[in-house]
Amino acid sequence: MRQAAQRASRGVPHTVESSMAKLYASEAASRICNRALQIHGGYGYTRDIPIERYWRDARLSEIGEGSSEVQRIVISRALLKSVNGELASAR
Question: Is 86 among the residues known to form the active site?
């Protein structure tokens, strides 16, 4: 995440780094919220404690602003492009 922020502040392209950071952060938040819901059981879904809101926000971060699947596609395309470039220069 830090590398993506540093590249962005320097004005350097940071698409892949940003995609990696977003994918990691959104999925980590989702895992953490799911565990919290498991710990609290049905009470975790009520509005009495903030876990329900955190879970909704975490889920939205996986769907909104480019889904996790889209982030994986961006990352894999960049990796394939760099591998193909290395293979071409090795020939």
Answer: no
Which residue is catalytic, options 17, 27, 62, 65?
65
- Total domains present in the chain: 1
The domain of 19 spans 2-90
Distance of alpha carbon 16 from alpha carbon 23, whole angstroms: 10
How does pLDDT run across 32-88, given as a tens digit for each residue? 999 999 999 888 888 889 999 999 999 888 887 678 889 999 999 999 998 887 767
CATH number for the domain including 29? Answer: 1.20.140.10
* 3 state SS of 12: coil
